[in-house]
Amino acid sequence: MNDPTENGPDLRTTIGGLVLKNPVLTASGTFGYGREFMDLIDLDRLGGIILKGVSLSPTRGNPPPRVVETASGMLNAIGLENVGFDALVREKLPLLETLGTPVFINLYGTTVEEYAVLAAASDRVDRIDAVEVNISCPNVKAGGAAFGVDPASAAAVTAAVRSRTTKPVMVKLSPNVADVAAIARSVEDAGADAVSLINTITGMAVDLKTRRPKLANVTGGLSGPAIKPVALRMVWQAAGAVSIPVVGIGGIMTAEDALEFITVGASAVQVGTANLVDPSASVRIVEDISAFLSENGIARVTDMVGALTV
Amino acid sequence: MIQTETVIRANDPVGGGCRRMMLDAPPEYGNARPGQFVTLRFPDGSGPLLRRPFSIHGVVKAADGTVGVELLYKVVGGFTQRLSAMRPGGAVDLLGPLGNDFGVDASARRVWMVAGGIGAAPLAFLARRLAEMGVDMASCALFMGGRSADDLISTERFADLGMAVHATTEDGGAGEAGLVTAPLAREAAISPPDVICACGPMPMLRAVAGIAEARGIPSRVSIETVMACGLGACLGCAVETAGDEKGYRHVCRDGPVFDGGWLKR
C-alpha cells in the first residue's frame, strides 16, 4: 500500500468551483487589504485572502474607542470603515496583482440594490476571484446584520448578488439569530455557492469606574477563542442543513481549532482575530494542518470534512 | 517591520512601578527611529489575547554588530504584570519597528521635550538620537511631570546629555508643585524653542499643543490608544483629529506621532 503522505497530504478544497490550495482563508476585517501583511508572511501560502469589507462609498466607521479586550476575546465596533469600492479597485487591488492565491472581496450594502451594484462591479474586476457577502456585521445600523437575521431578506440579498456575478458567491452569516440552519438553507436556495460563519457575536463591556460602555458604539462584536464553542455548534448545524460548502469561522488560533471546524462539516476555515495577535498565525495553521494529516496518515483534508461521529 | 521571537537580556525596576527591559533585536532595529513602537506577546500564547504596544526607549548597537532594543514600561495590568515577572533569558514575541517618528532632524537647534510619567520612554530615545546627530543638547530641555516623585522616571538620561530638566509633581514631592504645563508655558513665553515633542496623557498633550500653538511653535505629540494589530489592518486604533472630515486617523499607521495642531480639543 502506498504511503498516502509520501508527497505531503492533499490540502486542496473547493468552494463554488474555485479550487483553494489549502483550506485556510483570512477573515474579512482582520487582514486589511492584504498589503499590511506582505512584509511579514508569504500570502501565496494561504488558501485565499478575504479583503476588508467594502461598500459603494467610503465609510468613516464608528467613533473611538473601537476595540476592547475581554476574557479570551476582543470586542470590536469598527463600523466597517473602508475606502469604498472604487478606491479599493484603484489603489488596493494592484498591490495584489502578482499574488497567486485567490482574492475574495467582501461586500456590504445598505439596500439590496447596493449589494447588486457591488456584485456587478466586482464581476468586471479580474483580480477578484470570489465574492463574500456580508449580511452579518453587528456594528452598523443600516444594512449589515439587518439582512442577516431574517431568512427572506438574506435570500433577497443573495439572489440579487447571484444574478449579477458569475464568480463564486459565499454568504457570511450572523450568529445573532435563533435558527442559523434556516438562514443557511434560504441563502442556499437563493443561489449561494457557500456559506461562511460565524460573524462576531454581539456583546458589551462596561467600565465600572465611569459607568459607561467601554466601546463608543456601546455594543460590539465578540471574536477570538471565547466564541469558538458557539461557532463550532453553529457550523455543525449549518453543515447539517445545506449541501453547499460551509466555511467555519470563530476563534481559530491553531490547526487543531481549524480541524475541529472541518470535522463538524466545514470545507474550509477563516482565521480572524489570530491574525491581529500573531501575523504569522494563518501560515502556521496551514503548516500544522499538513503536519497533523501526515502524522495521522490522512491523505486528503477533504477526508476530514464532516468526519464527526455523534 | 519584522516579527521575531527574541530573548530578554534585562528587566530591571527603575522606580515608580516601572521597569526597563532590554531585548535582543534583529539588525533592522539599528534603523529604528525615535517615536516608533513595537508590540509584544508571550510566544506560548498565554496571557492576555492582544499584543501590547510599547514605545522604543532606546536602541543599543554593540561593537559586534548585535542590536538591543530597550523598552520602558509601567506595570498597570495583566500583561505588564506578567512581563515584569519575566527574567533575563525569557522569550517574547517582538513585532516592529512600527509607526512613524517625531520627524525631528539635526536641523532642529532648540528641542523641548514634555513627558508625562512613562511618556519619557520615546523621548529618551529622541534625546539620545539628537545628541548622536550633533544637536547641542545644552540648548534643549526636558519638562517632566508626574503625580509624585516616583513618576519622574528616567530623567537622568536627559540630564546626562546636558539637557536642562524642569520637573513638576502634582503633590509637590519633587520639583515644582503643579502641572508640567506651568513651567512650559512660562519658559515658552520667555524664549520659545524651535519645536516641542511630547508624550503623556491626552489632557497633557492637548494642553501642550495649545501652548505651542499660541506661541507659533510646531509641536509633535505621541498618542497612546488601545490597539489590536498595530499593522493598519483592523482599524481599531482610530483617533478623531481636528479638521479631518474625511475620516479618522489611525495611531498605528498614521502615528503614533501627530502634529499637535491635529489634536481635537
Would you tell me the structural class of the helices and strands of chain A? alpha/beta
Mean pLDDT of chain A: 95
CATH-scheme architecture of chain A: Alpha-Beta Barrel
Largest sheet of chain B: 7 strands, mixed
**What is the number of E strands of chain B?**
15
Helix/strand structural class of chain B: alpha/beta
Which CATH C-level class of the largest domain in chain B is it? Alpha Beta
Q: Identify the most extensive interface between protein chains.
A: A-B, 36 and 29 residues
What's the total helix number of chain A? 9
Note the run of SSEs of chain A as H and E.
Answer: EEEEEEHEHEHHEHEEEEEHEHEHH
Q: Write down the domain tally of chain B.
A: 2
Question: What helical percentage do the residues of chain B reach?
Answer: 10-25%
| CATH fold description of the largest domain in chain B | Rossmann fold
Shape of chain A: globular
Through-space gap between termini of chain A: 30 Å
Q: For the record, what is the CATH homologous superfamily label of chain A?
A: Aldolase class I
- Physical arrangement of strands within the biggest beta sheet of chain A: 3-4-7-8-9-10-15-16
Strand order of the main beta sheet of chain B, please?
10-9-8-7-11-12-15
Keywords:
heterodimer, A: 310 residues, alpha/beta, TIM Barrel, 8-stranded parallel barrel, 4-stranded antiparallel β-sheet, 9 helices, 16 strands, 29% helix, 20% strand, disordered N terminus, B: 265 residues, Elongation Factor Tu (Ef-tu), domain 3, Rossmann fold, 6-stranded antiparallel barrel, 6 helices, 20% helix, 34% strand, globular
If you had to describe this structure to a student in words, what would you say it looks like?
The complex is a heterodimer of chains A (310) and B (265). Chain A has helices at residues 85-92, 112-123, 145-148, 151-162, 180-189, 228-241, 255-263, 273-277, 281-295, and strands spanning 13-15, 18-20, 24-26, 48-50, 67-70, 73-76, 103-107, 130-134, 169-172, 194-197, 201-204, 206-207, 212-213, 219-223, 246-249, 266-271. With 310 residues, chain A is α/β, with parallel strands linked by helices. Chain A has a single domain, classed as TIM Barrel (Alpha-Beta Barrel), CATH 3.20.20.70. In chain A, the strands form 4 sheets. Chain A has an 8-stranded parallel barrel with strand order 3-4-7-8-9-10-15-16, surrounded by 6 helices. In chain A, helix 7 (255-263) packs across helix 9. Chain B has 265 residues and is of the alpha/beta class. Chain B folds into 2 domains: 2-98, Beta Barrel (Elongation Factor Tu (Ef-tu), domain 3), CATH 2.40.30; 111-262, 3-Layer(aba) Sandwich (Rossmann fold), CATH 3.40.50.80. Chain B contains 6 helices and 15 strands. Chain B has helices at residues 78-84, 120-132, 155-159, 181-190, 202-215, 251-254, and strands at residues 2-15, 18-25, 37-41, 52-61, 67-74, 91-98, 111-116, 141-146, 164-169, 176-177, 195-199, 219-222, 238-239, 249-250, 257-259. Chain B has a 7-stranded mixed beta sheet, sandwiched between helices. In chain B, helix 4 runs parallel beside helix 5 (202-215). The two termini of chain B are 33 Å apart. Chain A binds chain B through residues 29-32, 36-37, 39-40, 52, 58, 60-69, 72-74, 76, 78, 81, 224-225, 253, 273, 275-280, and chain B through 1-3, 41, 45, 48-51, 93, 95, 225-229, 231-240, 246-248.
